[in-house]
């Protein structure tokens, strides 16, 4: 990897030659090509550090030594924690499930990928970390899927478990079967509903007229009209 180019008197000079001395240990980590300083190995440090590099510059019959400080910035690992998402049994293929949250200390772009736990292809994960239900036919009620997610910043790959739970349809989203009879009515109306708790009657203006916990409701005192 190119570290930088040498300049003589503020400009590149083709008559100058450059070489590394053998007096500093860090010189073994670099090499010179023409007027450029290049890394000679891959750095595998877990924190940033400084290297001292000694350069000999020769111009015609003159030579001099320069001591350079090279700051090695280490790319840090992306940050992500285990997360949990939910789908309900009525969700269809293509349903958006959620966005996996992750960050990179260096501001690198992150790419996401499911590496394990996806069965026959139940879920789909975009490279941006958006999770979808790919094939609803394969989900099982009350099942819990542990997806192994790879997060890649171009330098490091880390893995995390993302859990997706399949829940029953919430009661408020279920189609509720009921019957009110007779309709129209003048005296008593009857409510046939398995999970009945309470009934509230409103007029067309939205005003509440009556509330009852009885499945038989007397409406004989109501004025003629439409109620709901």
Structure explained in plain terms:
The protein has 228 residues and is mainly beta. It folds into three domains: 2-72, no CATH class; 79-167, Sandwich (Immunoglobulin-like), CATH 2.60.40; 177-218, no CATH class. It has no helices and 20 strands. The protein has strands at 2-5, 16-20, 30-33, 36-39, 49-59, 62-72, 79-80, 83-88, 96-99, 102-103, 111-116, 123-125, 130-133, 144-152, 157-167, 178-181, 188-193, 199-202, 208-212, 216-218. The strands form seven sheets. The chain has a four-stranded mixed beta sheet with strand order 8-15-14-11, with no helix packed on it. β5 (49-59) and β6 form a beta hairpin. The relative contact order is 0.11.
Give a brief outline of the structure.
The protein has 228 residues and is mainly beta.
Strand content: over 45%
Structural class: mainly beta
So, CATH architecture of the largest domain? Answer: Sandwich
Q: Could you give a short account of the major beta sheet? A: 4 strands, mixed
Helix content: under 10%
* Sheet with most strands: strand arrangement: 8-15-14-11
CATH homology superfamily of the largest domain? Cadherins
Low-pLDDT stretches = none
| Element-level helix/strand string | EEEEEEEEEEEEEEEEEEEE
| Rg calc | 36 Å
The level 1 CATH classification of the largest domain is Mainly Beta
- Kindly identify the CATH topology of the largest domain: Immunoglobulin-like
Number of domains: 3
- Principal-axis shape: rod-shaped
Average of the residue pLDDT scores: 84
If helices are DSSP runs of H or I spanning 4 or more residues, what is the number of helices? 0
Question: Ends: how far apart?
Answer: 76 Å
Strands, count: 20
